[in-house]
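Q: Protein A?
A:
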Amino acid sequence: MASTKSFAEAVKARRTFYALTNESTIPDSRIQEIVKDAILHTPSAFNSQTSRAVVLLGEEHVKTWDIIAEVYKQQLPEEKFNRANERFKGFRAAYGTILFYEDTDNVREFQDKFKTYEDKFPGWSEQTNGMHQYHIWTALEAEGLGVNLQHYNPLIDVRLETEYNVPSTWNLKAQMVLGKPTSGPAVENKEFKPVEERMKVYGAK
């Protein structure tokens, strides 16, 4: 069943949660539906549709964070790895991970098609990926899930490509961790810069 929160309520409620369990407040089918809706309906420049996602739930989620820990263990001194591994254990304890990618072949296709804007498409690609992340994050939180966003790429890229048969043209951007929250958000009382410094309005009635 879809959340009854309004879009505005969901936007205001969205926060980062780190303390997550390996439980979900919604069925796996609903998680897939949320991601599918984002892939289908999130806008992109020239309708280029360059964003991609890999949804990893249950044991596949656990395996992903085992892989990430293994990669970093090979790259970091023992002391630094031990500190990083405490974070990995926390992410591993959650319910799922969504990997966000941009298809570089798809980006190049539109660069070739619209030469006037060739230098703009990589930036537009990043923008649409961010919109996908925000869309999914907000929708999951509206369903009672806690979410945090990680960026352990590029060290993990090749291993995850191999494990999940990801095309080499897909460029990894972020790892979204989700699960049932066990406590409040990382920042309980978010501070806001004055909106007057960040917003200008002309011609309003």
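Q: Protein B?
A:
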Amino acid sequence: MGSDPQYAKYPSLSLAQDIFTLTNPSSADSSRQTSLKKIQDAVSEHKMAPLYRYLAHPTDGILNTSGEGSTRKSSTPGSRKIPSASSSLKRRPSVSVDFPWDEELYKRLRIDNEKELESFQKEEEEATEQAGDTEVQAAKGKRAEFWARVGDKDKAIAAYEAVLEKTGVLGTKIDIVLAIIRMGMFFGDRMLVKREVDRAKTLVDTGGDWDRRNRLKAYQGLHYMTIRSYNLAAPLLLDSLSTFTSYELCSYSSLVVYSVLAGSVSLKRVDFKSKVVDAPEIRAILGDGEEKLSALSGAAASGPGAGDEEMQDASSATPAAASTVVNLTALGSGQAAAQEAEVAIDFTPLAGLVRSLYVGNYQAFFLALAAVEDNFLSQDRYLYEHRGWYVREMRLRGYQQLLQSYRVVGLQSMASDFGISVDFLDRDLAKFIAADRIPCTIDRVNGIIETNRPDDKNKQYADVVKQGDSLITKLQKYGQAVRLRGSERG
């Protein structure tokens, strides 16, 4: 069943990113103004009365304070104070948002919505009287897409469920569930997303086609990333790079960012080398000019030593470094009509992070990590609330990689390698040591760090004893139960 995907146009998740940018204290003023213009244009173009009320209403809107309604000409719109670090639209902004309420505009949008709904109702009634079930389902599908387009979450989900209940085609069922997942992602409802992702997986496992299986990988990977399960997200996102067609979910450039970040923090070094450092799809983006050409032509290998020494030097991955900006519009996999023109992204910090971590240039690694936090983690609605955790885990990964090669390391020497002070290194390592994340001890008097290498044989012996005790306990309980039953029979 290889039919084209249905119900893939709405909601627009790029609009949710614009709403996040509008409320993000880390966003530049120019970015906020651009996002505000996009939101206002989308509200007018798509007649989004429910979403407009949800965002801007003076008493109910999440972007404005309660009080008297302000017009579009008002120069002092209110704001509410809550963390903007979330990808959810339920939370209030921590910055002042200039998104005033226009009662007249809202009334016009409501009238347009009512007229459109009347046309759908008329079409459905005519289909019921004169046509068959297919035409009735098509009319109901239009209503569901309408509610998704105008931003009414509850009515859209109810309408999709009504269509799903009467649908017998497996591919269409999967498309409807994917549309519900996007509604959950738009409004930051993670419980809904989790439930529907499991539902979509069940449907795909019963006989979903190749395209929908691949699309679901991207959905699953993005969901796992938003709940901080990077170890589960990484293989799904990386596998999606070569077969990506889910442009309704995110852009290809965003998928590259998510894949590299997830792989860098969760994969073991061998897998990190093969799936991130040497992956042709990633080398085509993060490498230099020759690497991009070789990756796109298929000449780049994914095995060890596949020309990685020619990747861009990590020392250039500072926030102020100049680099070539890459536009990925032409790198999709055959659905050019479905792709929107992507915003050009400077991948230099990301390339520096990957390269410096792999080659062990830790000072450049910390600089690249800071640049990645500023340019990616702090600007994306899915990554923002995890940015502190991610930076901490990447610092831990750098420390672990260096310490596993030595029995004893000088504090001053290690601090110099990372380009930080001895005091900062001492405090940072102490947190990881206390949490049993790094097996070492700090001797501040002698200025050294001693690693405590785990003894595999002793660990295996302890595991055998522990499991053996558990097994003996179970056998004793089983024996007692058998004897009781025997005495009962007697």
